Automatic annotation (TrEMBL):
Family under the similarity heading: Belongs to the TRAFAC class TrmE-Era-EngA-EngB-Septin-like GTPase superfamily. AIG1/Toc34/Toc159-like paraseptin GTPase family. IAN subfamily.
Protein name: GTPase, IMAP family member 1
Segments traversing the membrane: 262-281
InterPro entries attached to this UniProt entry: G_AIG1, GIMA/IAN/Toc, P-loop_NTPase
A GO MF label: GTP binding
Region (Disordered): 1-25
Pfam family, one: AIG1
Keywords: GTP-binding, Membrane, Nucleotide-binding, Transmembrane, Transmembrane helix
Gene Ontology CC annotations of this record: endoplasmic reticulum
Keyword GTP-binding among record annotations: yes
Domain AIG1-type G: 25-218
Length: 295
């Protein structure tokens, strides 16, 4: 993998997102998610071809396209709500990946998919909205444990039901990395991963993921960085405070809006049918004269 390295402003505490390269250059934005110790930073370093994380944001050129990777320490564990009550860290993640990621890389070590990984995915859905699953690529670290075997065979044969369900949810977008690999081996692995992401981007007609918070971050591009961070954090905190059921409905509604006319029609027909069945059942079961007649 060749290309000029272009990481800038990595220590900017408010994470100005468009801070490397020319804005006209195509860019793939990737957010690393997963439980602590899964190998997120190591994966970020593999993709960028250099040890960058410790710091949270870096961008670099690779052969085909510029890639921006956002690392996310401690945002997807059970303690995040206590550790980040005002959503400042999570808003920072939004600003670093604005105007929205092309893919979420859900990182998990091969052979160790646990309840913590499931929790990480749940937190990611909560943070970005349920529609983000359509952007998830499952990345297994410790590829060397496959001993030359195929990752697709591994997920097909695994007895871990939760993992099989996740792979189905991600529509089979899986790959494996040995983050200790170097040279052409590392390049080949990263090319495979970026190929998956590019396929995903093509499916979404070149678009990136977005939601209300990303739209707000874009609308506030001209604002002071601290103000932008504060406003996005407030909006996130407001949404995450709502009861889970309400959040799910709001997320589904936002997702539906982004899917266009066919989905609207389908959903309207489904809801209409459900209401009709309910009314018919209610009128049959609830009419007391029926009961009188039968007794
Ligand atoms: N053998 C092997 N070790 C790996 C691989 N990927 C990551 N590791 C090791 O796994 C450990 C955790 O990796 P990190 O990248 O720090 O994990 P993380 O998800 O960033 O962890 P937090 O930042 O604490 O959330 C480190 O010791 C890595 O060297 C891999 O592909 N193979
Ligand atoms: Mg890390």
């Amino acid at each position: 993998m060749r290309g000029q390295k272009m990481a800038r402003h990595e220590e900017d505490p408010c994470g100005s997102a468009d801070d490397s390269g020319s804005p006209q250059e195509p860019e793939l934005r990737l957010v690393l998610v997963g439980r602590t110790g899964a190998g997120k930073s190591a994966t970020g370093n593999s993709v960028l071809g250099q040890r960058r994380f410790a710091s949270r944001l870096a961008a670099t050129s690779v052969t085909r396209v510029r890639v921006r990777v956002v690392d996310t320490p401690d945002l997807f564990g059970p303690d995040v709500h206590r550790a980040d009550p005002a959503c400042v860290q999570r808003a920072r993640c939004y600003l670093l990946s604005a105007p929205g990621p092309h893919a979420l890389l859900l990182v998990t070590p091969l052979g160790r998919f646990t309840a913590q990984d499931q929790q990480a995915l749940r937190e990611a859905k909560e943070l970005f909205g349920p529609g983000v699953v359509a952007r998830v690529v499952l990345v297994f670290t410790r590829r060397e444990d496959l001993a030359g075997g195929s990752v697709h065979d591994y997920v097909r044969c695994t007895e871990n039901r939760a993992l099989r369900e996740l792979v189905a949810e991600c529509e089979g977008r899986v790959c494996a990395l040995d983050n200790r690999a170097t040279g052409s081996e590392r390049e080949a692995q990263v090319e495979q991963l970026l190929g998956l992401v590019e396929g995903l981007v093509r499916r979404h007609r070149g678009g990136h993921y977005t939601n209300e918070e990303y739209r707000l971050a874009q609308a506030l591009q001209a604002a002071e960085p601290e103000e932008r961070l504060r406003r996005v954090a407030e909006k996130l905190a407001g949404r995450l405070r709502r009861p889970r059921g309400m959040r799910l409905l709001a997320g589904l509604w936002a997702w539906r809006k982004s899917q266009g006319t066919y989905w609207s029609l389908g959903l309207a027909l489904l809801l209409g049918g459900a209401v009709l069945v309910y009314v018919l059942l209610w009128s049959r079961l609830g009419d007391p004269s029926d009961g009188d007649l039968k007794s």
